[in-house]
C-alpha cells in the first residue's frame, strides 16, 4: 500500500470544515498554530483584478521524507502504507523534523509534549476502505484519498484522467499530495507559477513506483 491524497483545489470554498473535522477526529489542540491540515490563501491581481487562490495543505507523507532522515531518535518514521508518523514517546522535542520539513506541516502538541502532524487518519481502518476525516467532511469533494498501488482506487482513477502538480517539487522529497490542475484555463494560469511542472499519471507512476520500492523496506507491512 502507498497512501496519498489528490486535491481538486479549484473546488475549495475555504469553509474550514476539513480543519474542524481534523481537530475533532484527532483531538488536536485549539489554536491557529495547532494544525494538522489547513487552507493556504495566496492573493494577487491580474491587470488590476484581484483574485485569491486556495490551496488545501497538510503533511505530504513524502517518499523521501527529510523529517524521517533527520530525526535522531527514530520518532519520525514510516508506518504502514508509507504514512509518515511521529512516536510521541520517542520524541525529544529537538524540532529537527520541523526545520527539515519544507511544507511546515508539523507543530508542537503541548499535551503530549511532542511534535504532531497529519497521519492520514490511519486509525480509521484504512485497510478496510476507510478514509480520512477531512475527505469525509468536505462538502465540495476537494479531497480524494487512496492507495496509489491499487489501480481500482478512486485516487488512481482520478489521476489517470487529470493533469496535476506538486508543491515545492524542487525539494526532491517525492511528495504524495497531488494538486489537480483546474479545468478552467484562467484559474489554472493564475494558480500555478511559470516554474510549475505539470504531470500525468502515465509519466509519474514509474518514477513513484521505483522510489516506493526503494523505500519499502522501511515501511511496516
Structural descriptors:
221 residues; metal-binding; ET_IronSulfur_Cluster-Binding; alpha+beta; 4-stranded mixed sheet; two-stranded antiparallel sheet; 4Fe4S_Fe-S-bd; 10 strands; 22% strand; iron-sulfur; metal ion binding
Overall tally of structural domains: 1
How large, in whole angstroms, is the Cα Rg? 17 Å
CATH class equals: Alpha Beta
Structural class: alpha+beta
Give unreliable regions as ranges.
none
Q: CATH topology, what is it called?
A: Alpha-Beta Plaits
Q: Largest sheet, order of strands side by side? A: 8-1-10-9
Summed over residues and divided by their number, the pLDDT gives a mean of 92
For the biggest sheet, the summary is: 4 strands, mixed
Strand content: 15-25%
DSSP E strands, number: 10
Counting DSSP H or I runs of 4 or more residues, the number of helices is 7
Shape: globular
Protein model, in words:
This protein has 221 residues and is of the alpha+beta class. The protein has 7 helices and 10 strands. β4 (76-78) and β5 form a beta hairpin. The chain is globular. GO terms for molecular function: 4 iron, 4 sulfur cluster binding; metal ion binding. This is Polysulfide reductase / sulfide dehydrogenase, chain B. Pfam families: Fer4_11 (PF13247). InterPro entries: 4Fe4S_Fe-S-bd, 4Fe4S_Fe_S_CS, ET_IronSulfur_Cluster-Binding.
Amino acid at each position: 500500500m502507498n497512501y496519498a491524497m489528490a486535491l481538486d483545489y479549484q473546488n475549495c470554498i475555504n469553509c474550514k470544515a476539513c480543519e474542524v473535522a481534523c481537530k475533532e477526529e484527532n483531538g488536536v489542540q485549539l489554536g491557529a498554530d495547532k494544525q494538522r491540515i489547513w487552507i493556504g490563501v495566496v492573493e494577487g491581481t491580474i491587470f488590476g483584478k484581484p483574485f485569491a487562490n486556495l490551496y488545501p495543505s497538510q503533511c505530504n507523507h513524502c517518499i523521501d521524507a527529510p523529517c524521517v532522515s533527520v530525526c535522531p531518535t527514530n520518532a519520525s518514521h514510516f508506518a504502514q502504507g508509507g504514512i509518515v508518523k511521529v512516536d510521541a514517546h520517542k520524541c525529544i522535542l529537538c524540532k529537527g523534523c520541523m526545520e527539515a520539513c519544507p511544507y511546515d506541516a508539523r507543530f508542537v502538541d503541548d499535551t503530549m509534549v511532542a511534535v504532531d502532524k497529519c497521519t492520514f487518519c490511519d486509525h480509521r481502518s484504512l485497510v478496510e476502505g476507510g478514509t480520512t476525516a477531512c475527505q469525509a467532511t468536505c462538502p465540495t469533494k476537494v479531497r480524494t484519498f487512496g492507495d496509489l498501488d491499487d489501480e481500482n482506487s478512486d485516487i488512481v482513477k482520478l489521476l489517470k484522467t487529470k493533469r496535476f502538480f506538486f508543491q515545492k517539487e524542487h525539494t526532491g522529497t517525492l511528495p504524495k499530495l497531488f494538486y489537480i490542475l483546474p479545468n478552467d484555463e484562467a484559474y489554472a494560469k493564475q494558480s500555478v507559477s511559470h516554474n510549475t511542472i505539470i504531470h500525468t499519471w502515465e509519466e509519474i507512476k514509474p518514477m513513484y513506483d521505483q522510489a516506493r520500492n526503494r523505500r519499502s523496506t522501511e515501511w511496516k507491512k
